[in-house]
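Entry 12.
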Amino acid sequence: MATSLKIIAGISGTSGDHKLLEYLHFLALKIPIAQVTHLHVIKMLYNFGEINKIVKGDLKFMANRFKEEKMMPLLNAYNKVTSQSAKVLFGKVVPAFEATLASEQATIIALGKKDKGSCTLAKNIVRKLDCNTLIVPAKSNFKFNNILVPVDLSKHSSKLLEFALALQKNSTETISITCLHAYELIDLPAYTMLHTKERVKRDTRATVQEAFDKFIQKHNTAESNIKTVLIEETNNWPSQYILNYLNDKNNDVDIVLMGTQGHTRIAALLGSTVEKVITKNNRCPMLIIK
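Predicted 3D structure (tokens):
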């Protein structure tokens, strides 16, 4: 992870912006953020060329007014961020974000999430763009003490954990990391026919625990102090275990890091898992790592 982050903050002009900007201001106090570019995209009707020509002047007026009234007051909102700017672009939304990522050399897109929003833009960006995506729900708490990292023990899970460790190292405060791994029971007829259900459960957990411990040992140090949580799956939906853990106030999760790649059977579901968590998670910021 870069020592200082460069972020594209998506500005919609709706109620979701307020929480996003408050959270970015809070985050800049905890980890180094070098740059925030505020981006608003006005959709163009590509199939109506003549109409677009007629309204082009009006659209430019709208863009300038939106930038002046809605976006310029955002600048200098973060006293810990070195560089801040505001842009209003015309066209298709996802390509506009992609072009801005390239021009600003940013690596993270940050988006707010309304309490009952569809999250369509966030899902499209996660699917289509090669960048990390921060999603801040409307009910997010301003805390940065405990990072949850769901893992499937793949190489990409190692990348997630390394990113979390980099956040921990660069933070101005002490941060704990919790790794969550959900597993299925052994389902081999030749084995399950010879042993009781209790034996199968015990042996499966012992085998998975050993693999989990080895995975953690590759990254754990005295400074990192990674906590582990191992959960037996019963419904084959990893997203539900993640959401249950996030929604349990006793776990006190402040941000969750998730990935969109993997190599195990559970990892093959990660794309849909991420989207389910994006849709249903209303209280905890999410950082999706590519």
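Annotation: The first helix runs from residue 16 to 28. Residues 146-289 form a domain with the Rossmann fold fold (CATH 3.40.50.620).
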